[in-house]
Amino acid sequence: MSSVLPATTNPSRASRLALLLACAACRAIEPNAPSRWAAPVSPAVPQADGYVAIPKVAVAPEPGTVYRAIFDATRAASGPTQLLPALNMAGSEINALAASGVPLANAKFAIVFHGSTIDGLLDETHYREKYRVGNPNLAAIAALKNAGVELFVCGQQLAADDVDLATLTPDVIVASDALIVLMTYHDKGYAILSF
After folding, report:
1. For 91-100, what is each residue's pLDDT tens digit?
2. Average pLDDT in the chain
3. What is the spatial distance between Cα 75 and Cα 85, in angstroms, rounded to a whole number?
4. Are 173 and 150 within 8 A, CB to CB?
5. Is 94 helix (H, G, I), strand (E, B) or coil?
6. How many domains does the chain have?
7. How far is CA 102 from CA 62, 87, 154, in A?
8. CB 91 within 8 A of CB 45
9. Which residue segment(s) compose the domain that 83 sits in?
């Protein structure tokens, strides 16, 4: 019988060393270890990522500044129980501003959905029918709308995919075309952020 290990290698010693290294790695990423960072907070959109306040940073959110951004939502969620990336990013930025004392009236945000994001806009009944789970995006959409975010869906995409408007959440507005929305908001001074 031939061996793949050199004659000088002790298999049990190698196994013990691998186990020791694995245990050390687990201790290094122990979830209950104290953190150097404050806990993230999600004061406006609890479904989205939270914001960690970091003292003495450059370019911190300023309460007197008006922030304008349109989120170009083209990427689907990684799975049917996950938020659409654009919802998470818009929500996390709303959380960052709210946690920093910026009035939500100073957050002039819009999202335009097209491409593979359309399924994330299905109402609860139709999403559950298609994916066999509840739509995780609906609560985030409602929270964003409550925070003043404008939510558009591309009419051209809906027509191309033959989507029944009655299957979508009523919290989104059908726009003529996603690219028209992006150009219009860009011309109004909105930063275009793609997710």
Report:
1. 999 999 999 9
2. 88
3. 7
4. yes
5. helix
6. 1
7. 6, 20, 30
8. yes
9. 67-194
Task: Give domain status of residue 141, yes or no.
Answer: yes
Q: Is residue 106 part of a domain?
A: yes
Residue in the block written with tokens 């004659």: 7
Quote helix, strand, coil % in the chain, to nearest 5: 40, 15, 45
Strand segments, DSSP code E, in the chain are: 67-73, 107-113, 150-154, 173-175, 191-194
Look up the CATH number of the domain holding residue 168: 3.40.1260.10
Is 4 a member of any domain?
A: no
**Residues with Cβ < 8 Å from 93, sequence gap 6 or more?**
67, 69, 107, 109
In a domain, 126, yes or no: yes
Instruction: Count CA within 13 A, CB hemisphere, residue 44.
Output: 28
Cα-Cα-Cα-Cα dihedral sign, residues 115, 116, 119, 120 = negative
pLDDT tens digits, residue range 50-65? 999 999 999 999 999 9
- What CA–CA distance (Å, rounded) separates 5 from 69? 59
